[in-house]
Amino acid sequence: MNKLTRRTFIGGGLAVVGTVAFVLRKKLKSKLTRWTRSAAFTATPPLRAHDPATERRTVHVAKGGTVEANVDQVLDKAGVDKLVGVDDLVILKISAQWWNQGMSNVAAVKRTIERILARPGFTGEIVVFENTHFRLANGSGLSRAFSRDSARNVDVPGWTKLGDLVDHFDKSGAPVSFVGLVDAAPSELADDHWHDAPHAHGVYGGDGRGPIKPGEVRDGMRWDFERAYALKRGWFEETRTPLSWPVFTSPRSGLQIDFADGIFKVEGDKRTKVDRKLTWISMVTVNEHSATGMTACCKSAMGIVDMSAGRFGTDPRTEGYNSIHYFGNPEATWRMAGPLAHFATHVRSPDLYLAVAEWVAISPPASAAWDDDRADIRLDEATAHRANTVVAGDDAVAVDWVCAKQVLMPIAQRIDGRYKAQLDVTDPDSKLSKFLRYYREVARKGTMDDALIDVA
Length: 456
Known about the structure:
The protein is α/β, with parallel strands linked by helices.
């Protein structure tokens, strides 16, 4: 008994010593990491020189009309009939993670679908999709703004939410379907409030199936660690994010859409490439954003990628990786432009961006009492401003540049002068300037020069 007690005592003591050593080692590593972080990580990226011969862009702007009239005007200018072929499978990305000014305007989405269907000779189909990063109790990703009523950004008489689009086009018999993407792994953030305490409109996080395995034929998310985006943060630290993209099936045709590789016909465990054009139109909101200065075209792929592929996702394969949202946190949140541009370069980028700024969100002035836990600028009436504008183009950086200058800054300047540090693209050190510069640096394209942007 004495020997056993001594052995137990010694073993327990060693365990305590080991635990203390582990904790101290972790604290020392954390301090060392902070002390040796590079100043370059937070520094304003240099503006890569423009090439006037290849980087002149046309951005189409419509303002002052009804939502439908503004959409019609920019689609006429952009030439939707030339963009969309008669047999194209058109994927239409919308924003639905938040409601009110945080979601795609319903009337604008409806009109865009109608315009594609009205293209002379159109025999293709449209799949409307979004990854809200939430899932309903039945497993569907058609959550959040699809199921929750909105006070703003609907603008269709008798309708209250994005989900009304689903019912409308189901009844019409048109070749239009809707897919809610779901992340691959659960999240530590699943129980957070998310301005929906009962989680009636979705639980944050994936379905727990993990990424699609090599050779596995199913819908879901692909993770590519070999092409992860990485950046040195200091002497001993690197931040990195896996490349991720969705694979999903059209409910109408049964064709599988692999975001990186195109369209496939699936028969059992075999899929065959279909020789058919995949056309992507991305409909984005235009709002101020605390992490990047603005959320619009460049940031819109956040609603496609897998947010569980990194920090706060619980899959052990992502240990040591950050999801895109946390790539530059906390000191350089705008660095998420890097993995976003990496996605656009290595997976896919839209054929056309439609930035619908009917209702936009800008945080209240410094003098206002504001509680971030109680309210969110994408939801609250106090932060909503009617901009009545639609901007379109095929260059994410150029469209964002125009949206910042012509949509958000004029409103922001009327509210409070402090927005210069957030939104002013003419200030190289504003958060939005850093975000767009870094996006352009990684993508190796994108125009940030008024002299090269023709606003039509």
